[in-house]
């Protein structure tokens, strides 16, 4: 009997090990990438309210429809940030300044952002690089970072002195007069958080609560909230022009970027790099990563209300073109990769294309053709920009260049 149960134990361990070794293929195995196999769908209307009112003016968009859409995203997709149980005090401290960063091209500031109330305290690290030779205050890029900003990844690379050890070509940004900031996605919440007891959430729970409610913030909303605290700091830093901040992020951080920019109008421009599912890609296409796949592997990136729409995407009152539209009239840029099928490049383009309706209503220039542009051709001189390039899931030199061009075009235009 004992021998039998031992055998069964060994077998189930083996099965588990085999399953987890196969896991990356398992989650991808039934994904559809063929356009002709994708479902037919109707997108929810951007410019018609649930009451049937057609939105005809910029004012109606700003005062009626945009708030409705943001509330839907807050309550059903990313989760809203509740009122904290007691007021949070926020303080900033520049803990280290290096005026000789990258051979004197920039000044690096390590900023500590402290968040504190009766229930506890959390700290965020915020990195700010100011170009030394440029006019101040300088416009800046602001990256939602996967990597820990306290790590050596953010030092200058020995092999290529114009870049950081993580590959970011910051020398080019400094030469063009841009600052660069970064906030680490895991300072306030874990990458695939499942308990939220050690995250920033603990400062928000009223007595008796220990887990976010179904409509309350998941991981992506938490990252977005953190970036807003970085922006609070920038508003106090005279070296940075906080009216010209371009927020950006790749993949999971691209999703967080769009949600940050949609809500917080202090960010003047947004760049989504291969943000895919829950980022720029349309839910209803179900191509590449789907809602089901996302919540299976990352259950709390979104709020729990989003689970209700698994395999029921047609019931969602929003699709991701509406998220991009909430950024209007501020310029938004979407970058896809041909080989990044998981992020559905066609769905990312269509989202940007459909969001353009709102840009036009607000007197801005959107994408004009429903056809995706040629691979490698970037649309820069538009308030909705886009490129798709050969290759997979990464930010390549070609992409960095386009991001700088896009920001340069728009920031100069508004000056
Ligand atoms: C996973 C996840 C994606 C995410 C990506 C990333 O692949 O499924 O949604 O974008 O990780 O963040 O790199």
Poorly predicted residue ranges: 1-24
Q: How large a portion of the residues is in β-strands, by DSSP E?
A: 15-25%
User: What is the rounded distance between the termini?
Assistant: 81 Å
- Characterize the overall form: globular
Strand order within the widest beta sheet:
1-2-3-5-4-6-7-8-9
Structural category:
alpha/beta
Order of helices and strands: HHEHEEEHEHEHEHHEHEH
Whole-angstrom Rg: 22 Å
Task: Quickly list its features.
alpha/beta, nine-stranded mixed beta sheet, 19% strand, binds alpha-D-glucopyranuronic acid
Describe the protein's topology:
Elements: H1 2-26, H2 58-77, E1 89-100, H3 101-104, E2 106-117, E3 120-131, E4 138-145, H4 170-175, E5 179-184, H5 219-234, E6 240-250, H6 252-263, E7 269-273, H7 291-297, H8 320-325, E8 332-337, H9 345-361, E9 384-389, H10 397-413
Parallel strand pairs: 4-5, 4-6, 6-7, 7-8, 8-9
Antiparallel strand pairs: 1-2, 2-3, 3-5
The structure holds alpha-D-glucopyranuronic acid (GCU).
Residues 251-252, 276-277, 289, 294, 342 line the site of alpha-D-glucopyranuronic acid.
How would you characterize this protein structure?
Helix 5 (219-234) packs across helix 6 (252-263). The chain has helices spanning 2-26, 58-77, 101-104, 170-175, 219-234, 252-263, 291-297, 320-325, 345-361, 397-413, and strands at residues 89-100, 106-117, 120-131, 138-145, 179-184, 240-250, 269-273, 332-337, 384-389. It has a nine-stranded mixed beta sheet with strand order 1-2-3-5-4-6-7-8-9, with helices on both faces. The protein is of the alpha/beta class and 415 residues long. It is globular, with a radius of gyration of 22 Å. It is built from ten helices and nine strands. Alpha-D-glucopyranuronic acid is lined by residues 251-252, 276-277, 289, 294, 342.
